[in-house]
Write a structure and sequence with these properties.
- This protein has 327 residues and is of the alpha/beta class.
- The protein has one domain: Aldolase class I (TIM Barrel), CATH 3.20.20.
- The protein is built from twelve helices and ten strands.
- The longest helix is centred in the middle third of the chain and has 18 residues.
- The protein is globular, with a radius of gyration of 20 Å.
- Bound molecules: ligand PBG.
- Ligand PBG binds next to loops.
């Protein structure tokens, strides 16, 4: 028996050495907070997402100031309208909740952080799908693109700096890019939810936006079995002119994230979704895991797999912890 010559443990002997040997760090600037703003209502909690609110415009204003003070990079806005219809009229109405909230928050915060908007119809349609329906009930891809073009104009006009295309229609990036460009919004950026999977982990989000969906989104969102197809979707979005591509959910799809990060020549983001949040919160509430360590490790793992930035409901709290640790 000879003693080992190679001893990886050497670099783990002290906190100082471990810190110096650390490959990845999470920084507040690369965190984005998703936020829900509800029309005509006081702020109210979301039961399945403890600590997350459906905001009123006023409480959203306070939250965005707090977010900027914490040093995070941006917010991603979702609107919860009072009235819905077949084509999602509220999404393109300048007086629709998402567009009103966008204007209010841009006005409140300037460019202290990046105000971004979800570009998808599901919060605004009475059937809850991400697009408009054809006569036979299927989601009509090309008719939906026309709605997305109008939605992009409404959001860019309201002051959104980055449009998050989460509807998973074919050709959505090219369509939105073209409409933005011919209307003088060349500088409005596009975040493509490229590899967005038909996931059970969006469960709590459906409560957050009071979703009316019956059925599922499997004819447009990706099959969780498919990694190669996720990479293909990212490549198509890069070719169509996306500024950033995204993988969603994050935790269960780190292999897809790593594959997209390996091929992409533009930033790659990941969305740690509502179910990922709810699972850690629920287990921590039982005392079964250490909440802070689990939150930090979950986001670190997403960064390690290749995400340049992470959308997470813990963005502000995590940024606050990170500041403490550096101080
Ligand atoms: C669709 C959209 C969804 C989420 C973000 N954008 C839901 C869905 O596709 O069903 C989920 C986010 C989350 O679960 O945190 N506009």
């Amino acid at each position: 028996m000879t003693n080992p010559v190679i001893r990886p443990r050497r670099l783990r002997t002290s906190g100082a050495l471990r810190s110096l040997a650390s490959e990845i760090r999470v920084h507040p600037a690369e965190l984005v907070l998703p936020m829900f703003v509800r029309e005509g209502a006081d702020a109210r909690p979301i039961t399945s997402m403890p600590g997350v609110m459906q905001h009123s415009i006023d409480s959203a204003r306070r939250a965005v100031v707090e977010a900027a003070e914490a040093g995070i990079g941006g917010i991603m806005l979702f609107g919860v309208p009072e009235v819905r219809d077949a084509i999602g009229t509220g999404a393109t109405d300048p007086k629709g909740i998402l567009n009103v909230a966008t204007r209010a928050l841009v006005d409140e915060i300037g460019d202290a952080l990046v105000v971004q908007t979800d570009l998808c119809l599901d919060e605004f349609t009475d059937h809850g799908h991400c697009g408009v329906l054809a006569a036979d009930g299927h989601v009509d891809n090309d008719a939906t693109l026309e709605r997305y073009r109008d939605m992009a104009l409404a959001q860019a006009t309201a002051g959104s700096a980055l449009l998050g295309l989460s509807g998973m229609m074919d050709g959505q990036v090219a369509a939105v890019r073209e409409t933005l460009d011919v209307n003088g919004f060349e500088d409005t950026a596009v975040l493509a939810y490229s590899a967005k999977y038909a996931s059970a982990f969006y469960g709590p989000f459906r409560e957050a936006v009071a979703s009316t969906l019956v059925g599922d989104r499997r004819t447009y969102q990706l099959d969780p079995a498919n990694r190669r197809e996720g990479v293909r979707e990212a490549q198509l979005d890069i070719d169509e002119g996306a500024d950033i591509v995204m993988v969603k959910p994050a935790g269960g799809y780190l292999d897809v994230l790593a594959a997209v990060a390996a091929m992409s020549n533009i930033p790659v983001w990941a969305y740690q979704v509502s179910g990922e949040y709810a699972m850690i919160e629920a287990a921590a509430a039982q005392g079964w895991i250490d909440r802070r360590r689990a939150v930090e490790e979950s986001v670190l793992s997403i960064r390690r797999a290749g995400a340049d930035a992470v959308l997470t409901y813990w963005a502000v709290e995590l940024a606050t912890w990170l500041k403490e640790e550096r101080a």
